[in-house]
Every structure is written in structure tokens, then in C-alpha cells.
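FW: tagging you since you asked about this chain on Friday. Here's the raw sequence from the shared folder, copied in full. Didn't touch anything.
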Amino acid sequence: MSKDAASKPSSDLPHVMLFTDGACSGNPGPGGWAFILRHPASGKERESSGGEPDTTNNRMELMAVIKGLEALTRKSRVELWSDSQYVLKGLKEWMVGWKAKGWRTAGKAAVKNVDLWKDLDELKSKHQITFHWVRGHDNHPENERCDQLAVEARDRAAAGA
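HL: got it, structure written out here
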């Protein structure tokens, strides 16, 4: 990246909105993740989802954010919308301490889902992210759509598709 690109003010970065959700039947059990990536300036939007046959809800919530951030092709100002306090608090509050303690919790236990948290840490460093909590199943249109896509992906994973 050139010096000019690295020193661009944040207002010059593309602005995107990332809506995410995860779903799991049983915990562990078959699960699905989904995201909607919206580019307000152009009106373009992208949806994606996927699933795993044996996973947890927290892993699917994390995967939704990872896959959404991986879909970005350049540094962006990202508004992340999620109904997962686990994901949002992890990104905003807990991850700094976990890293400082060698990916251990305050109680010295290994951080669960550390592989995904490390992926998120790398992706987070590439973007300017702001965090928004959405109450799940509360008629938030994008959260409801992500939930629908994640449930469909979970059902496909459960069926072995």
C-alpha cells in the first residue's frame, strides 16, 4: 500500500454496512452463518451464507463476520450490525486482553474459538469498524434476512447438502 493510501482520512474510505447472523440446531449441531454487505453510496448489496454439519452457535456468529469482512476487496469503513453480544464484546472489549495474555481469558483458560478470533483479529486490523448491537428476532429487516439465510444454510448442512 502506498503512503498516500495509508494516510487517507477515514472519510475517504469506502463505507459499507455489514449485517450478520448465525444459527445452530443443538449446540453443538448443524449450523449456518449469513451476511448482507451493503454499499450505501452505490446501492449495491451482496448476500452470502454457508453452513457446517457439526458446530456451535458462537462459531457461526463469528463465521458470519469473518466471511463478510473477507468479501471486502479494499480497506473500508465498516458498520458491523450483529445480534451477538459474544462477537461484539469480543471485538470491542475482550480481544485486546486475550491477545496480551497469549489468547487466555482473565481466568487463564484458553479462549474458545481462538482460531476464529485470530482470523477476526487479522481482518479487523485491515478496516475501520464500528459496532452496532441489534436485538435478535425483533423485526430488524436485515437481521431477520440474515437469520433466514443462516437457518436455510443450517438446514442444508443438517441434510448433508
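FW: Strands lie at 15-24, 29-39, 44-55, 77-82, 128-133.
HL: agreed, and The first strand starts at residue 15 and ends at 24.
FW: great, closing this out.
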